[in-house]
C-alpha cells in the first residue's frame, strides 16, 4: 500500500531522523513511538504529503486514499455537526444526489412527464439502476445512521448532532473531525494523538472500533492501554533512526530490551577483543619475529567498524517535588453542595471529604462537570447551596491545558521559566530545567520550535518547581512522550501530598489513584477503589462496530492476560489500602506517644517538682512507658511500611 524509503529530515539545524524505512500493508495497524521532539508528527506529515523530506521517498499505491487527523485543527468549519461528519462520506452523498437527479429524469421522460421520450427514459432507468446498485454496495442507505452511531461513540448526544460546529470547543471540534474521517473509511488512517481530546469512555469505544478497522492505521499515542489494544506493530523513532518491531506494545517493550541487551553484549565483546588486540600490538610492536602478525592486526583494526553501545538515556523529565508543608487532615470538604451557572445546577448534593495524602482520579463523560467540580473544590467558584471548606495550610498548584497555550512562543525556554518562577533561593534555573528534560542548549531554544510534548513538560515544570501539598492536574499527559509519562507516574506515586487528577489515561489512573470520583448525570459518586467496571462502563463495547475480521488467538490471549492483570492489580490495591490505613493509624499513635513523652520530659525538667520525690518517680516511670510505646510503635510502622512497599512493587 505505502512504502517509506530512506526518509531524512532536519529542523532548526539538527537532524530529526535519517534513513527511515518501513512499509504499511493493507490491514496493518502500526504505532509510531518515540520521545518528544524526535519528529513523529513531522514524519506523519511527510507521509500524508504536508511536508517534504530532504531525501528519501514515500511511494503510495494507486487509488490509495489517506485520511489524516492532526493534533491541532486549522480548517474553519461551518454548518451542523451531522452535516460536517457526512462530508466524510462525500462519495456516498454525491451518489445520492445523482440518484435524485436521475429519478427526476425518469419522471420527466415518462409518459406523464413534461418531456416524454421512451428512449431517454430507458437510458435514465439504466443509469438509475446502475447508480442505485453502487449506492447500495457502498451502504448508502445506512450512512446517516452510521454517522450518528460514530458521533454517539465519541460522546455526542442526539441533540448535539444538529448543533453548529462553530458553537463547540476545540476539543469537541476535534471529535467532529475524527468522526468525519472515520466515516470516510480511507485505505490508510493516519492519527496524531487521537485520544487527547477524548474522555475515558470515548477512548474505550475508539480503541475497540479501531481494533476491527478493515484498513491500515498509522498512529501516534502516549496512551499505553490504547497502544496495546490497537497496535500490532510498533515503529520506534530514536536517536535519528527508526526500528520496526512485530507485535503489540507489550511485545515491543520486551523485544526492544532484548535488542538493546544484544547490542550492548556485542559492543562489550568487541571492546574486549579490541583491548586484547591492542595489548598484543603494544607488546610485540618492536619484536622482529612478530612484525607480520602485528601489522596484520593493525590493518584489521583500521578496517574494523566499531560497534557503539546503544544509548539508553532518553531525554525525559525527572519530575520531582520539593517537600511541602503538612496540611490539615481534611484538605477540602463539601457538605450538600450544589454548583452551576446562571441559576442552573451542574452538580447537586455533593458530599465529599478529601483527606491528606489521597490520590483521587476524576472520571466521567466530557461535559459532565469534572472541571466545574475542581473549581468548586479549589474555591474558584462559589456553591449555589451547601458548604465548601478548604483545610488549614493547604498549598495548591494547578496544571490546566490552557497553561500550555499561554506560553510565549517568542521567548526561550529559560526566559519563560524565569518569568514564571523567578530567581528565588539562589536556585540554578538551568539545573532545574535539566531535571525536566531541558539540558544544555535546549534551554535556549524558542518555545515556537518545541514539540507539543516539550511545551507540556515546560508547563508542568513551572508548577512543580515550588513545594505544594495539593496538586491538581487536568490532562497532564497530553502530548507527553511515553518515557515522560512513566516518570510522571513514578513521581505522582512518590508524591507525599494530595492529588486531584483528571485524565483519560487509564494506565496512569490505575497506577496512581487510590480512589475514583465519578462525575455523571449531575452527581458525584465516590469509589474507594479503582474499579475496571467504572473505568470502562458497561455498554461501551456494545456501541463498537461489529468486527469485519475474525479476532485471532493472540488477541483473545492478550485480553485474557489484561483481565488477569487487572484482577491482580485490584487485589494489590485492596491489600495496599488496608496497609496504608494501618500505616496512617500507626503514624497518629506514634505522634501521640511522642507528644506524651515530650510533655513528661518538660515536667521533669521543672526544678520545683523535685521536692516531691513520689511525683518525680511516677513521672519518670510514665516517661519510660511512653518512650517504650513510641519505640514499639515505630518498629510496627517500619514493618508495615516494608509490607506496603513490597505490595506496591
TrEMBL record:
Keyword Isomerase: no
Annotated SUPFAM superfamilies: P-loop containing nucleoside triphosphate hydrolases
Pfam families, per the entry: ABC_tran, ABC_tran_CTD, ABC_tran_Xtn
ABC transporter domain: residues covered: 2-265, 332-546
Keyword Transferase listed: no
Record's compositionally biased regions (Basic and acidic residues): 557-571
InterPro entries the UniProt entry points to: AAA+_ATPase (IPR003593), ABC_tran_C (IPR032524), ABC_tran_Xtn (IPR032781), ABC_transporter-like_ATP-bd (IPR003439), ABC_transporter-like_CS (IPR017871), ABCF_ATPase (IPR051309), P-loop_NTPase (IPR027417), Val-tRNA_synth_C_sf (IPR037118)
GO MF terms, alphabetically ordered: ATP binding; ATP hydrolysis activity; DNA binding
Region (Disordered): 543-578
UniProt keyword list: ATP-binding, Nucleotide-binding
PANTHER family the record matches: ABC TRANSPORTER ATP-BINDING SUBUNIT, DRUG RESISTANCE ABC TRANSPORTER,ATP-BINDING PROTEIN
Record protein name field: Unannotated protein
Amino acid at each position: 500500500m505505502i512504502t517509506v524509503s530512506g526518509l531524512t529530515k532536519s529542523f532548526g539545524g539538527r537532524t530529526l531522523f535519517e534513513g527511515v524505512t518501513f512499509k504499511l500493508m493493507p490491514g496493518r495497524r502500526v504505532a509510531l513511538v518515540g520521545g518528544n521532539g524526535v519528529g513523529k508528527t513531522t514524519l506523519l506529515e511527510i507521509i500524508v504529503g504536508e511536508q517534504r523530506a530532504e531525501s528519501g521517498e514515500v511511494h503510495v499505491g494507486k487509488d490509495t486514499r489517506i485520511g489524516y487527523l492532526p493534533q491541532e485543527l486549522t480548517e474553519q468549519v461551518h454548518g451542523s455537526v451531522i452535516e460536517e461528519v457526512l462530508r466524510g462520506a462525500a462519495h456516498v452523498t454525491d451518489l445520492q444526489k445523482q440518484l435524485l437527479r436521475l429519478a427526476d429524469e425518469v419522471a420527466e421522460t415518462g409518459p406523464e412527464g413534461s418531456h416524454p421520450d421512451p428512449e431517454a427514459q430507458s437510458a435514465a432507468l439504466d443509469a438509475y439502476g446502475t447508480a442505485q446498485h453502487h449506492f447500495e454496495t457502498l451502504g448508502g442507505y445506512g450512512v446517516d445512521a452510521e454517522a450518528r452511531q460514530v458521533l454517539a461513540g465519541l460522546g455526542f448526544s442526539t441533540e448535539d448532532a444538529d448543533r453548529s460546529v462553530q458553537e463547540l470547543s476545540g476539543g469537541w471540534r476535534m471529535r467532529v473531525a475524527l468522526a468525519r474521517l472515520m466515516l470516510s473509511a480511507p485505505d490508510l488512517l493516519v492519527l496524531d494523538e487521537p485520544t487527547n481530546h477524548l474522555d475515558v469512555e470515548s477512548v474505550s469505544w475508539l480503541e475497540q472500533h479501531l481494533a476491527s478497522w478493515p484498513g491500515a492505521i498509522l498512529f501516534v499515542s502516549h496512551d499505553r492501554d490504547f497502544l496495546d489494544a490497537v497496535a500490532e506493530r510498533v515503529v520506534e523513532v530514536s536517536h535519528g533512526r527508526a526500528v520496526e518491531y512485530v507485535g503489540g506494545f507489550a511485545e515491543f517493550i520486551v523485544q526492544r530490551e532484548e535488542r538493546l541487551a544484544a547490542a550492548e553484549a556485542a559492543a562489550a565483546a568487541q571492546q574486549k577483543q579490541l583491548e586484547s588486540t591492542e595489548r598484543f600490538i603494544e607488546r610485540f610492536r618492536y619484536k622482529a619475529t612478530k612484525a607480520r602478525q602485528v601489522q596484520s592486526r593493525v590493518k584489521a583494526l583500521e578496517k574494523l567498524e566499531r560497534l557503539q553501545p546503544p544509548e539508553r538515556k532518553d531525554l525525559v523529565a525527572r519530575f520531582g517535588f520539593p517537600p511541602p508543608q503538612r496540611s490539615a487532615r481534611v484538605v477540602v470538604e463539601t457538605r450538600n453542595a450544589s454548583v452551576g451557572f446562571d441559576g442552573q445546577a451542574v452538580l447537586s448534593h455533593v458530599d465529599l471529604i478529601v483527606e491528606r495524602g489521597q490520590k483521587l482520579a476524576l472520571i466521567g463523560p466530557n461535559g459532565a462537570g469534572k472541571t466545574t467540580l475542581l473549581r468548586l473544590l479549589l474555591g474558584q467558584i462559589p456553591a449555589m447551596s451547601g458548604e465548601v471548606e478548604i483545610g488549614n495550610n493547604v498549598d495548591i498548584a494547578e496544571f490546566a491545558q490552557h497553561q500550555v497555550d499561554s506560553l510565549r512562543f517568542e521567548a526561550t525556554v529559560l526566559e519563560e521559566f524565569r518569568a514564571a518562577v523567578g530567581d528565588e533561593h539562589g536556585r540554578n534555573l538551568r539545573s532545574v530545567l535539566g531535571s525536566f528534560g531541558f539540558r544544555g542548549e535546549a534551554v535556549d531554544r524558542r518555545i515556537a520550535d518545541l514539540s507539543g510534548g516539550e511545551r507540556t513538560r515546560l508547563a508542568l515544570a513551572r508548577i512543580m518547581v515550588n513545594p505544594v501539598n495539593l496538586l491538581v492536574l487536568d490532562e497532564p499527559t497530553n502530548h507527553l512522550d511515553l518515557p515522560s509519562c512513566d516518570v510522571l507516574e513514578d513521581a505522582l506515586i512518590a508524591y507525599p501530598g494530595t492529588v486531584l487528577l483528571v485524565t483519560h489515561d487509564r494506565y496512569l489512573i490505575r497506577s496512581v489513584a487510590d480512589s475514583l470520583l465519578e462525575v455523571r448525570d449531575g452527581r458525584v459518586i465516590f469509589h474507594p477503589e479503582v474499579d475496571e467496571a467504572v473505568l470502562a462502563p458497561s455498554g461501551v463495547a456494545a456501541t463498537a462496530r461489529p468486527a469485519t475480521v475474525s479476532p485471532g488467538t493472540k488477541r483473545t490471549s492478550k485480553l485474557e492476560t489484561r483481565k488477569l492483570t487487572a484482577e491482580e492489580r485490584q487485589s494489590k490495591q485492596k491489600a495496599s489500602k488496608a496497609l496504608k490505613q494501618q500505616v496512617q493509624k500507626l503514624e497518629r499513635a506514634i505522634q501521640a506517644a511522642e507528644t506524651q513523652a515530650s510533655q513528661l520530659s518538660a515536667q521533669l525538667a521543672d526544678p520545683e517538682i523535685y521536692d516531691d520525690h513520689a511525683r518525680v518517680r511516677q513521672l519518670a516511670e510514665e516517661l519510660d512507658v511512653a518512650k517504650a510505646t513510641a519505640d514499639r510503635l515505630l518498629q510496627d510502622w517500619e514493618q508495615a511500611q516494608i509490607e506496603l512497599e513490597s505490595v506496591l512493587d
